Amino acid sequence: MKNVFIRCANVGRRIRELSRHRQWFRSSPFKSAILFLTNRCNSHCRACGIWREEPKIDMPLEMVEGLLKSRLIRPGYSCFTLQGGEAILHPQFARIVQLIQKYGFDYILLSNGVDHRKLADFVERLNIKNVQLSLDGRPQTYILARGVGGYDSVIKSIEELKRLKASVSLAYTISPWNCLEDYLHVAEVAKRYGLPLATVIYENAKIFNTDFKEGDFFYDTSRFMPNGLERKLILFYKKWRENSMIPCLSIFDNTCIMPNGDVRLCHCTDLVLGNLSKEPFDSIWSSKKTLAILRQYRSCNGCYGHCHRIYDLALLDKAKFIPRFFLERLLGVGGIGPIIDELKRKN
Questions:
Q1: Burial (0-12, 13-18, 19+ Cβ within 10 Å), 9
Q2: Residue 146 CA, distance from chain mean position
Q3: Nearest alpha carbon to residue 297 among 326, 340, 332
Q4: Second label for 335, Cα 20 to 30 Å away, from 153, 216, 249, 278?
């Protein structure tokens, strides 16, 4: 009997969490925002065109502070991802981090690790706790994919940040410019230094202003990955390409904010919900326009972006034992049976 009560309580918690994605409560605090602080970059990645953008734009300090004061963004619940371009190239990067720390928010810095000295200096001086570095293969592959010889600098960044006791992780992107041997090399680097490894799949992400290269470049890394959400993300990619529905739940809790203040729906559309130089975040996010767009795009299923899909899978994994008809009504999206069945089967 006790186990039945525990299971009912767990289901109740999952229903409350998922109910946010029907937007019944517009005053709910916002979970995560990705701040594209600048379009300055010291890499020339083939999977990204941000480095080519002109003019160079840096998010104003006062815009960041206005965001931190938003009613819907709360310390202890909301968190930020700082990226670019290369975020540490923002002329006021140190002041932005100090503001985020002052207001008590959690954050993670994404970096290419090319300028390992500058990165280590910021981490030490600002006491930055969480950093994710990109590494897309062996040294020659790195040059091919990123246009610069930054492999050794990434390794030095890992070693420096480990010395400084920062929490470091790696991100690897499956792309047309690398192969399974590159993944295995990066996995070995992650193992050697004791780092978590996120595996991303190259995507036509409009937010990165990329000249997308079509083709069947995907290779399956799942058999070399530990059980968990990262592995599930790879396992389900083929299912998604076969038109299995994965509802886009992440857009209700996450957004992207560009250097000029544009609040974007997600990585893979060019939809702009509003601009922070014209109106505050709370007004943009609570508007009827934004609500209509969120409801329209929750059944989009048009991309497989890592930061969106891993969030969606995590929520669905928690909810997989809720009766399907009820779950579909709750989310306002049909056709999720196959992905729920897969979540029940896969480890």
A1: exposed
A2: 20
A3: 332
A4: 216
Radius of gyration of the chain (CA): 20
Residue 213 tokens, joined: 């290269």
Q: pLDDT 10s per residue in the chain (347 long)?
A: 444 334 444 545 555 555 554 443 345 678 999 999 999 999 999 999 999 999 999 999 999 999 999 999 999 999 999 999 999 999 999 999 999 999 999 999 999 999 999 999 999 999 999 999 999 999 999 999 999 999 999 999 999 999 999 999 999 999 999 999 999 999 999 999 999 999 999 999 999 998 888 888 999 999 999 999 999 999 999 889 988 899 999 999 999 999 999 999 999 999 999 999 999 999 999 999 999 999 999 999 999 999 899 999 998 998 888 888 888 888 888 888 888 888 887 55
Smallest CA-to-CA distance from 242 within 137, 339, 309 is with 339
* Residue of 94, 87, 93, 89 whose CA lies nearest to 109: 87
Question: What's the predicted TM-score (pTM) here?
Answer: 0.91
Q: How many residues does the chain have?
A: 347
Instruction: Tell me whether strands 254-257 and 32-36 are parallel, antiparallel or unpaired.
Output: parallel
Cα 184 from chain centroid (whole Å): 22
Helix, strand, or coil (residue 93): helix
- Residue 334 one-letter amino acid: G
Residue 257: what residue type? Answer: I
Residue 48 contacts by C-beta under 8 Å, 6 or more apart in sequence?
Answer: 208, 209, 210
Is 127 within 8 Å of 107 (Cβ atoms)? no
